[in-house]
């Protein structure tokens, strides 16, 4: 490329960059500007860096250095001042965006609360395991109950009545008290175990 073409390309890049920085009105590094404009305008990185440095020297844009990086932005004094109507429009837009932000924050809090409730709830596998454990407990209790019902050492009311009649006959000729007799023989009564028979109707 001849020097004349390089100058023309450099001038074209400077015009594109100046217009872009004024329209966006925000700071950009040379890398960011190159990444945003290369596809649409076919600008090379070297041309972008050179054009930005040229604009900064001419006062078209401002340059700030942060460590090893340079940031470029439009000179605010060269931008037209906003009218009262534009300022009112911006205030309205700010208020609208603030309301949207509050609504989004409230929605986020609601979703976070729902997520917390879901995390504290039992999962389906946990519920399944709990049901299985309860079924096992129920089966165990049922088995114990059946063993108690089928036990051969239970005394029926009729058997108890016959035993009482037999003991009364023995005690008629026994010189000591009924309690002493029971202790000597080793008989345990319902009262010894705190058993109270239900009243019959």
Structure overview:
This protein is 67% helix and 7% strand. It has seven helices and three strands. The chain has a three-stranded antiparallel sheet. α2 (30-41) packs across α3.
Which descriptors apply to this entry?
about 200 residues, three-stranded antiparallel beta sheet, about 5% strand
Which helices and strands appear, and what pairs or packs with what?
Blueprint: H1 3-24, E1 28-29, H2 30-41, H3 45-58, E2 61-66, E3 69-74, H4 84-120, H5 124-149, H6 157-172, H7 178-185
**Which percent band covers the strand fraction?**
5-15%
Which spans have pLDDT < 50 for at least 5 consecutive residues? 1-10
The quaternary state of the protein chains shown equals single chain
What does the overall shape look like? rod-shaped
State Rg. Answer: 49 Å
Order of strands, main sheet, comes to: 1-3-2
Q: With helices defined by DSSP (H or I, 4 residues minimum), what is the helix count?
A: 7
Question: What's the rounded overall pLDDT mean?
Answer: 77
Roughly how much helix do the residues carry, as a percent range? 55-70%
> What is the helix/strand order?
HEHHEEHHHH
Per DSSP E runs of 2 or more residues, the count of β-strands stands at 3
Q: Briefly note the structural class of the backbone.
A: mainly alpha
Q: Main beta sheet, described?
A: 3 strands, antiparallel
Rounded to the nearest angstrom, the distance between the terminal CA atoms is: 121 Å
């Amino acid at each position: 490329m001849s020097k004349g073409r390089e100058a023309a390309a450099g001038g074209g890049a400077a015009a594109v960059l100046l217009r872009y920085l004024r329209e966006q009105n925000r700071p950009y590094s040379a890398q960011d500007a190159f990444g945003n404009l290369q596809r649409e305008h076919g600008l090379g990185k070297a041309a972008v860096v050179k054009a930005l440095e040229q604009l900064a020297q001419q006062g078209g844009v401002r340059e700030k250095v942060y460590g090893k990086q340079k940031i470029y932005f439009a000179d605010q004094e060269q931008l037209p001042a906003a009218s009262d109507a534009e300022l009112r429009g911006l205030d309205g837009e700010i208020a609208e965006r603030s309301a949207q932000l509050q609504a989004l924050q409230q929605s986020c809090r609601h979703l976070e609360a729902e997520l917390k409730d879901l995390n504290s709830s039992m999962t389906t596998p946990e519920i399944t395991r709990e049901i299985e454990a309860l079924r096992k407990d129920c089966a165990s209790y049922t088995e114990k109950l059946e063993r108690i019902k089928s036990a051969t050492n239970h005394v029926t009311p009729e058997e108890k009545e016959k035993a009482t009649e037999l003991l009364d006959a023995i005690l008629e000729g026994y010189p000591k008290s009924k309690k002493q007799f029971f202790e000597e023989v080793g008989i345990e009564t319902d009262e010894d175990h705190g058993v109270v028979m239900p009243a019959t109707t």
